[in-house]
Amino acid sequence: GPEQIKPLIKIAADKSNPRARLSAIRALGAFGPKAAEASAVLVEALEDQSWDGRDAAAEALGLIKQATPEVLAALVRALHDPDERVRMASARALGRCRTSDPAAIEGLTQALGESDMNVQLAAIEALAEIGPAAKASLGELQRIAETGPTLVRASAQEAIKRINSSP
Predict the structure, then answer these.
(1) CA separation, residue 48 to residues 56, 68, 105, 131, 163 (Å)
(2) Pairs from 159-167 (Cβ < 8 Å, separation ≥ 24)
(3) Dmax of the chain from CA atoms?
(4) DSSP character at residue 19
(5) What angle do CA 31, 33, 37 make, to 5 degrees?
(6) Distance CA 156, CA 127 (A)
(7) Measured between alpha carbons, how far is 35 from 133 in angstroms, rounded to an integer?
(8) Please, how many CA atoms are within 13 Å of residue 33, restricted to the half-sphere of its CB?
(9) Is the pLDDT of residue 1 over 90?
(10) Tell me, what's the pLDDT at 78?
(11) Residue closest to 51 by CA, chosen among 84, 19, 97
């Protein structure tokens, strides 16, 4: 139950046991918004370039849905991570946060130009989840809807519909 959140935060902060850290981070994400107090530790994990579980930290932040300036800034920075799994998880997390933050919308719009199709699709889906607040991305989405591979075109067309829908 929720009484496990504080002990899980301690495990997530402990860099000496990477496997336990990863398990704790995944468990914190499963608590969703109830684990909001874990956000700072998760941001730290996301930015730990020496650790291979950064994508799990991004996923957990998206599940917790705390769209604080610190969380959003970390997720936007992670859109430029060398690991495509981290970029994809960060895009998804931004979508789950349903933020209208201009820097997040801009970061996701830039991710539409990704060479990795999974990251590109995650950015498209995130912008669709954000909906009308993502209107600034419509030009790039339209370009992709006309010129991208079939799967990407279909996703971009759906995102355009959702962004153009009334809030």
Answers:
(1) 12, 19, 24, 31, 34
(2) 159/124, 159/125, 159/127, 159/128, 162/128, 162/129, 162/131, 163/127, 163/128, 163/130, 163/131, 163/132, 163/134, 163/135, 163/137, 163/138, 164/132, 164/138, 165/131, 165/132, 166/132, 167/131, 167/132, 167/133
(3) 51
(4) H
(5) 90
(6) 9
(7) 26
(8) 6
(9) no
(10) 98
(11) 19
Spatial CA neighbour of 41 closest among 14, 3, 62, 76: 14
Give the pLDDT confidence of 32-75 residue by residue, as tens digits: 999 999 999 999 999 999 888 999 999 999 999 999 999 999 99
First CA to last CA distance, the chain: 35
Which among 80, 70, 29 has a CA at the least distance from the CA of 12? 29
Residues of the chain by 3-state class (helix, strand, coil), percent to 5: 80, 0, 20
Residues 6+ apart with CB under 8 A from 131: 98, 162, 163, 165, 167
Question: Distance between CA atoms of 121 and 165, rounded to whole angstroms?
Answer: 20
Report pLDDT digits (tens) over 92-149.
Answer: 999 999 999 999 999 999 999 999 999 999 999 999 999 999 999 999 999 999 998 9
> Whole-structure pTM over 0.85, yes or no?
yes
d(C-alpha 124, C-alpha 109), whole Å: 8
Can you state the angle between helices 18-30 and 5-13, rounded to 10 degrees?
140
